[in-house]
Amino acid sequence: MNKKQSRTFAIACTAVATVAFLGLTIDSHRQFPKLTNADQLTPQVIAGKDVWHKFNCVNCHTLFGEGAYYAPDLTKIAKLRGDAYLQAYMRNPAQFYDEQRHRRLMPKQDLSDEEIRNLVSFLTWVSNVDNQGWPPRPILVTGATFPGTDMTAQQQAETSGEKTDGSAVPPGARPLSGNENPIALGERVFRAATPACAACHSLAPGVNMAGPSLSGVGSRAAQLIGSPDYKGKARDVAGYIREAVQSPSAHVVPGPMYSANGVSFMPDTYSKSLTPEQLDQLVAYLSSLR
């Protein structure tokens, strides 16, 4: 290839690349309204965005992978925590964590009720944007995990059959082989449900996140059912767990970070998002954690 041919080839390649780039750019802008749910940009959502900027939330948090990477990514937080939890948390973060133990660094911003509602609306709109899997590995709240992301050290130990202290893990806490095993299938439901159970509940003893640890939940349920403190209607462990999944407020676990005014922060949508078979599998899995 001589110099003239090389020059022509380079110009042609540049032209093709430019056309492709422009075409992809135009196509992206064409799809933005649908991908971002532009029709859902209500005045309340826009006001919530202003609250986000007013209080410089981006100085610590990230959205779509953009931000300070100092605190958890909040792109999908509205789907993981829900409206009631977020409102209570924004009013007073201190009641959700022990500052000495957990090193809570989230300041109390003294937002008004209207600002809180607007900010939650904004985060809900953000959570519904089709971000096509970006960021691939968001910063998560302590102990949480999503399918496709790295697990915490404790969770990795649990799935391998060992605890971080070297002792054995209860059989129900590790994934079992064989699609026919309801406990194995239930463990997958635990990780893949929407929202993922693992985003709020840890399987490690004493590790309480947005929801209480589920380590030994089968044994605790058996004790609770016979206690006068129990407010639900279940008569056995499986019934208690099923009730907790489908009607979280039937019996509220004590603690300001789990409920407000007798209403659990846990979503009550699992009876719709899970099939009856998946619910049976999840109950079998959680019942095995003793």
TrEMBL record:
Domain called Cytochrome c: residue spans: 43-127, 181-290
Pfam families per record: Cytochrom_C
Molecular function (Gene Ontology), one example: electron transfer activity
Matching SUPFAM superfamilies: Cytochrome c
Chain residue ranges for the region called Disordered: 151-177
Organism domain of life: Bacteria
Matching InterPro entries: Cyt_c-like_dom, Cyt_c-like_dom_sf, Cytochrome_c550/c551-like
Keywords, sorted A to Z: Electron transport, Heme, Iron, Metal-binding, Plasmid, Transport
Listed transmembrane segments: none
UniProt xrefs under PANTHER family: CYTOCHROME C-553-LIKE
Name of the protein in question: Cytochrome C
Organism: Aquabacterium olei
